[in-house]
Design a protein that fits this description.
Distance between the termini: 102 Å
Number of helices: 10
Radius of gyration: 44 Å
Number of strands: 58
Shape: rod-shaped
Helix content: 10-25%
Structural class: alpha/beta
Amino acid sequence: MTFTSPDTNPDTPPWPYCRYGGTVDDVGCRGIVVEPHAACLAHLCDADRSAYLADLHPGADLDHRGTPLSEELLRELLCAVTDTHSAKAHLGHVRFGLAEFIGNANFGGTEIGGDADFAEAHIGGDVDFTRTMIGGNATFVGAHIRGDAQFSGVEIRGNAQFDGAKIGGHAQFARAVIGGYAWFVRAEIGRDAQFPRAQIGGDTWFASASVGGNIQFGGATLGGDTAFRGAAIVGDAQFVGAAFASDATFRKATIGGHAGFGGVTFGGDARFGGVMIAGDATFCRVVFEHVATVGPLVCAGALDLTEAVFGTAVTIEAAASTVSCRRTRWASTAVLRLRHATVDLSDAVLEYPVSITAQAKSFTQDGQEIPELGLMEPRVRAASLRGVDAAHLVLTDVDLTDCLFAGTVHLDQLRLDGLYAFATTPTGLRWRGLVPVRWTPRRTLAEEHHWRATCPTRAGGWIPAPDGEVPLQPAALAPVYRQLRKAFEDGKHEPGAADFYYGEMEMRRHAHDIPRSERALLTTYWALSGYGLRASRSLGWLMGGMAATVLVMMLWGLPKDDPKLRSTGTLTGRSLTLTTDRPEPVNPDGPYHERLSTKRFEKSLRVVINSVVFRSSGQDLTTVGTYTEMASRLAEPALLGLAVLAVRGRVKR
């Protein structure tokens, strides 16, 4: 038989090997020889194999690198080192690097006092280390496992190395205890990777690893740094209740399902730059003790930060469909840069200034734009500010169309910057029964929409409340409008403040806790001038009043003829005494159409114009005309003043 020189063939192992079945092009069996024989354990004759097994004892070292092992041969090997008292196989150092396990490799329940080396081993079925104790390191670097890798309950006092390993099925490490680090760098796991309640004393690295199913670290304790940088996870990533004692890095990780971090405590920094999550990302009750930046990350579903705690200053950069910050606590300053998201800040605790800004451009990581996974909503929207202390809140370029404000603390100190939008009144012509209605354009609260939509007698176009939301009554909405009005006034935005003053007055006019007399007065104020904010309405009434006054003057106010003065005198010696009599104006008579002359119109118009500027025209009038002029001198200047006030409210800065 001819063999290839070990100096020229790269497949030649660095140990004395079996060479069984070798040819010119193939080194043959690479199993390490069993001394003093020239063959590996698999290719020993039956007598030599039996003698070798008989010489083994509990605690013996095993070195069968490169050896092909059937399930039966492995059982015989483990039986030879089984302690009769404990009924467990006891091994020293175990070396199975490059070994080929034909079928399953079952080491469940064994005790290995030293290292367990399976580097580049090939396992045709499952590998089972359930409840196994390994006193040293467990090395599966580059190993190929066709089936599942079962390590539930394993205790590895050293390190667990699976760098570059390929596992065709599940990787199960439930309740595993690893004293050192656990490295799965560039590992390939065909299905789920399960680490629930595992305890890892050192670093946990899944950098550039790929998982074909879900990854589960629920309740795990990770004592060192954790790195999932560049990992690709097809399914969900669950870390609920896990404890990260040091830094956790998920940069450029890809998660095809949901990501759950509920109840996690990050003792160090948590880096999520460039992370892409196809489902929801849940950070409920997560404690960030030292984190400085979360993101930029992209989440096609919801980013849930409910009851999360940020102990230090933080910047959150995220593109998501929704961002829930219910009862989230910021113990320091925070900046949220968001894209596409609808953010809910209900009952959030802001101890320091927090700003929420709509990011105009897509996020980038290492100079590359992060794909946004089909997120299409163009604007960042606020869903609720209820329970928030708005004195510490700044919103920039945030859409407030559907935002709920009732219950916000210090709403009058809310700061709005950039391009923002509120809900508006329905546009176009609406019908209230057979009566056409056109609403005056103005900014409104979403809560007003909800209340008006509950009344079927009002014209349509108002948006009803979402399911489960109870519409508030006008008495509760008036203070909300009042505080927003003050916030806009303090920001020198008088037109915006005018809209909220209008809303406040509308809510007062409809509130049932207001006396009827006051509501009647408000209704009159609304009808005449839109609470002093609708110049067109005031001018309309003014023009109508002036037209009515002119008509009354032409028909009844001007006398039939202008009275002619007549003077009479008495001459006594050189003294002349004159007396001038002014006849009383004579009421007009004759047909009405004769009274509607151009001359009488000109006189009536002069009287009315003078009345508008609160002056007397000096025109002789009948009794009806006199009282009409007095009424117009009171009403028409007031209407003109309301129109001027409305214009001033729209142009004042």
